[in-house]
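Ticket #4471: structure output looks truncated?

Reporter: J.K.
Steps to reproduce: submitted the chain below (399 residues) through the standard prediction queue, then opened the result file.
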Amino acid sequence: MKKIKYILLALLLAFSGYSQNIYDTLKFIRQDKNIVHFSGDNQQIEKFKEKLQNINLQGSKKINILHIGDSHLQAAFLTEKIRQNLFQHYLPKDTIAEPGFIFPYTLANTNNPYYYKVDYTGNWEMNKNTNDTLSYKLGLSGITVATHDSTASFSVKMLNNTYDFPVKYYFNKVKILHSIKPGITLKINGFYTQMKDNYSTFHLAKATDSIHIEIFNPDTAHAFELYGLILEHDQNKIGYHTIGVNGATAQSYLKCELLPSQVEEINPDLTIISLGTNETFNENFSSLENKLILKDFINQIRVSAPNSSIILAVPGDHIKNDISNKNIMMYRETLFQIKDELHTGLWDFYSIMGGKNAVLKWHNYDFTANDKIHFKRAGYQLQGELFVNAFIKFFDHRN
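Returned output as attached by the reporter:
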């Protein structure tokens, strides 16, 4: 019976778009809690709302959304559901979608988002923001891969032919975020590119869904460091850029010295922060300490992107030491305090999914992994649908 329930719900999720019909069968989900909260008179969010509502008008400017998180984001099941539903709701049916910011996680020997494939040659080393010691500088991705080889390469291929969502990904502009070392040259799809300070930009003659990058380094004493790529299309009106690192916390991202300049490069209109699972799992969890760290991180983003609105996502219920993690409630209260103090937005997934012990009900429907911390693909898709419904309800409302 459990398996039949899962199959039926998975089919409904695949075809439901952003409708709410599926939730009628899941009584433990608190649809009445599924709203985006903003405190006070927030002129910045009203400007974003107006910009989003007018996105398809002639002469409208592109919107960039930045979504930062931990392992719940790295696999991309959650963020791809959000991205696809946002694109389908706000953009024309024949829209051209861009991948936005990506990182070739395969080079770092960790799980890569499922919607693109990475191949590479050469020897690559990895450093990430959850490490105690750092061998290389870190940027927005929270992970750096580096090679000392005289020649190395990597390629990225969007899996459009096997992708099960309706919007496909293409790009005609490539920005590679990297270290600058004398003598190193890059070739993109067979053409040399001019390297600038900490990044290289290349315009393609026509849109593509794949890219091959070759690195030539005459001085192997110095490594080539790669911090990520931004894949864009000139006609795309919404950029949705996602970053996730397994095990990451807000403190982890504060280690990334290049993060401010790379956030500035994306220039987000909206930043979503989905952290807290790893903070609350810490045996030495402190509400006050985590509040100060998260406020520091938010302020760092605001310095780099002063026009960005911010939404904080409360992490979901999960099991720690065989019981529902009691630290979640304290962290949730911290996020509500920050919302009021820093005038951010907040999406309370903990309450929406059902509160304390809700993860057991989600697990009963086969939505979560056996650790009852992470979700399966269908669970992440359900979470994504919930977020987009709350997003649309708030941002489509006209005053």
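Triage note (M.O.): checked the attachment and the full token line is present. The first strand starts at residue 36 and ends at 38.
Status: closed, working as intended.
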